């Protein structure tokens, strides 16, 4: 029988395997018990037979060619062995590091005190340590090194060597750092985002448990009319503005404070510790002054941003992140409504703003629920004494049965953007109402006056949608008068002016409401393609009793005649005032002395009576 035909002897194989295992364990024991320099050579020379020497060589060959860095130090923290992967990773050859300590790879910016990768915790406590720390490559660059360092004990249980198995994790660390920044930092401004900010705020509130006497403050910052900047100049300009303001806020903040971008045009600043409430107000004023400094864009455009700031003071009674954020947010909204640079939160303000937000939430769905109402108020032409217009007056009967006038919700509907959908519904209903009057009473040649705001005008395709509404109602554009209320001082914006020109081209008249108050001034009127104005309702009750008001009306009348503007005076309650206004050239008069707001059915009856009376008076005159 040839050697190839022999059957394997299981007993012989087991014996060989057992002998091999014993030899491997003996080689490993030799390896572990000698911590002197030249570990491999010593293990080789002390091996007691050729088989053991072969296994020692095999063992060190495996370690040396391993794909992960392996380094061995003695109890003096001096290298006794490193493998090739270590050489590739560090740039140092084996003979350059044996006998030296890992501190040779300490980055220049680190000190012995804060750099101890084979730390006293490992060497002294005979423990296992795993972690990540920086190392400097022989070429000078710094990389991140992750290692697991373990003691290797002799027969007596005492550590003789320490073995570190590790690898360069610079790319992984950089990737994790990028992921962390994506998770906790805003990409545009590089500021902490809402998640990180709320975490820091939560920790600040927890510190009040240990230091209840301390004070901190939260500032909520919201830009004014930021959407208009995006719409008019583009998102690149808006982003540039946000980045510039973020840089200003960051440079102004103390190292202990946190500046955050919540999202959009909203920022928050956490003042980690203040001594007095006045400190927070001083910072709020500084921040506002920083924000309103002009910003010059690369294309030469100069913008002067503005913002509203809400301030809430934090102390031991501050309960939760959600509560203090809501408080600062409420104060910010109040600041925006009042036109103040900043407002400090108080409890009464919170109750009022909760009510307002509840209204806002209901207003958003009011049209869908059929809760909006239109009443019509007659407007009389002073010269002919005929009813030539009807003013559409919007109101809202909410789900609780409470009636709200448009003055109650117009401003925050403009801020929230709900005015766009509400305004669209109002225009459509007003035109349908006028069409119904024509159908019921015959052509009346009445005009209907509908209030609009700049935000409605800036909505995409406003003019085209309006033309379609007029066509659907079967009405000519001359039958509609838009009463423009300049809620936020936007009337002079180029885009608003462009829409006003388009409306004039369409044939729809526009009059400036609330003339004499706020931004509704002569300067605004002169630079806008409007056909006239409606005086602010506060003035009419003082006519003709107040010489000052009457003098102002006379001066405005002269201006209107020169500019060929039509003039309307609302809130006229007495015939005496109506007569005075008629004699002084005011074309249109509205108020209780002409007729109170009515439903459509009531208006039709009222118009029939009014038309009959006018016909009778004309007959008598003939």
Distance between the termini: 149 Å
Number of helical elements: 22
Shape: elongated
Tell me the strand percentage band: 15-25%
Number of distinct beta strands? 21
**Rg value:** 41 Å
Main-sheet strand order equals 13-14-16-17-18-19-20-21
Structural notes for this entry:
The chain is built from 22 helices and 21 strands. The chain has 622 residues and is α/β, with parallel strands linked by helices. Strand 11 (307-314), helix 12 and strand 12 (342-344) form a beta-alpha-beta unit. The longest helix is centred in the first third of the chain and has 24 residues, at 10-33. The model is unreliable at 1-17 and 31-38 (pLDDT under 50).
Layout of helices and strands, plus pairs?
Elements (H helix, E strand, L loop, with lengths): L9 H24 L5 H8 L3 H16 L3 E6 L4 E4 L1 H7 L3 H4 L22 H6 L3 E8 L5 E12 L5 E10 L1 H15 L9 H17 L4 E9 L2 H8 L1 H18 L5 E6 L2 E9 L2 H15 L3 E2 L5 E2 L3 E8 L6 H18 L3 E3 L2 H18 L7 E10 L5 E11 L5 E3 H11 L1 H24 L5 E6 L1 H5 L3 H12 L6 E5 L9 H13 L2 E7 L6 H5 L5 E4 L11 H17 L2 E4 L5 H9 L4 E3 L9 H22 L1
Parallel strand pairs: 11-12, 14-16, 16-17, 17-18, 18-19, 19-20, 20-21
Antiparallel strand pairs: 1-2, 1-5, 3-4, 4-5, 6-8, 6-11, 7-8, 9-10, 13-14, 13-21, 14-15
């Amino acid at each position: 029988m040839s050697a190839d035909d022999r059957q394997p002897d299981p007993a012989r194989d087991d014996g060989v395997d057992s002998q091999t295992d014993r030899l491997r364990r003996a080689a490993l024991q030799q390896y572990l018990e000698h911590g002197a320099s030249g570990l491999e050579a010593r293990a080789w020379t002390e091996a007691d037979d050729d088989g053991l020497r072969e296994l020692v060589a095999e063992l060190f060959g495996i370690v040396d060619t391993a794909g992960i860095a392996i380094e061995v130090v003695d109890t003096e923290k001096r290298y006794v062995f490193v493998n090739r992967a270590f050489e590739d990773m560090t740039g140092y050859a084996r003979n350059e590091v044996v006998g030296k300590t890992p501190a040779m790879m300490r980055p220049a910016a680190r000190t012995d005190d804060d750099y101890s990768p084979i730390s006293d915790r490992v060497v002294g406590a005979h423990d296992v340590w795993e972690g990540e720390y920086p190392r400097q490559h022989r070429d000078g660059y710094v990389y991140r090194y992750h290692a697991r360092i373990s003691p290797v004990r002799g027969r007596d249980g005492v550590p003789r060597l320490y073995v570190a198995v590790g690898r360069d994790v610079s790319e992984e660390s950089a990737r994790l750092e990028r992921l962390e920044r994506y998770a906790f930092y805003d990409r545009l401004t590089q500021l902490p985002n809402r998640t990180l900010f709320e975490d820091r705020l939560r920790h600040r509130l927890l510190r009040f448990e240990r230091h209840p006497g301390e004070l901190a403050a939260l500032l909520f910052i919201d830009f004014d009319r930021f959407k208009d900047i995006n719409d008019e100049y583009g998102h690149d300009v808006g982003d540039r503005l946000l980045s510039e303001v973020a840089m200003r806020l960051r440079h102004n903040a103390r190292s202990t404070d946190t500046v955050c971008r919540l999202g959009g045009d909203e920022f928050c600043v956490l003042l980690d510790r203040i001594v007095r409430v006045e400190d927070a107000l001083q910072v709020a004023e500084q921040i506002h002054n920083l924000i309103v400094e002009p910003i010059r864009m690369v294309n030469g455009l100069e913008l002067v941003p503005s913002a509203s700031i809400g301030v809430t003071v934090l102390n031991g009674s501050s309960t939760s992140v959600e509560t203090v954020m809501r408080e600062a947010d409420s104060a910010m909204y109040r600041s925006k409504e009042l036109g103040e640079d900043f407002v400090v939160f108080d409890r009464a303000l919170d109750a009022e703003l909760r009510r307002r937000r509840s209204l806002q939430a209901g207003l958003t769905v009011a049209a869908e629920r059929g809760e909006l109402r239109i009443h019509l108020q007659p407007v009389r032409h002073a010269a002919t004494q005929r009813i030539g217009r009807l003013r559409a007056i919007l109101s809202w009967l909410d789900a609780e049965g409470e009636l709200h006038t448009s003055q109650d919700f117009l401003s925050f509907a403009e801020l929230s953007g709900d005015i766009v959908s509400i305004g669209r519904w109002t225009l459509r209903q007003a035109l349908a109402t006028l069409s119904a009057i024509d159908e019921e009473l015959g052509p009346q040649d009445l005009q209907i006056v509908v209030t609009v705001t700049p935000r409605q005008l800036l909505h995409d395709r406003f003019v085209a949608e309006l033309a379609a509404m007029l066509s659907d109602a079967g009405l000519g554009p001359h039958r509609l008068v838009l009463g423009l209320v300049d809620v936020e001082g936007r009337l002079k914006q180029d885009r608003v002016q462009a829409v006003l020109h388009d409306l004039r081209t369409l044939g729809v008249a526009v009059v400036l409401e609330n003339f004499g108050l706020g931004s509704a001034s002569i300067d605004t009127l002169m630079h806008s393609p409007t056909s006239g104005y409606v005086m602010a309702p506060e003035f009419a009750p003082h006519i003709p009793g107040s010489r000052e008001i009457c003098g102002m009306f006379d001066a405005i009348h002269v201006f209107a005649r020169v500019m060929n503007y039509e003039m309307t005076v609302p809130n006229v309650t007495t015939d005496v005032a109506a007569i005075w206004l008629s004699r002084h050239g005011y074309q249109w008069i509205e108020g209780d002395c002409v007729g109170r707001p009515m439903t459509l059915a009531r208006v039709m009856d009222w118009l029939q009576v009014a038309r009959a009376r006018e016909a009778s008076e004309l007959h008598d005159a003939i």
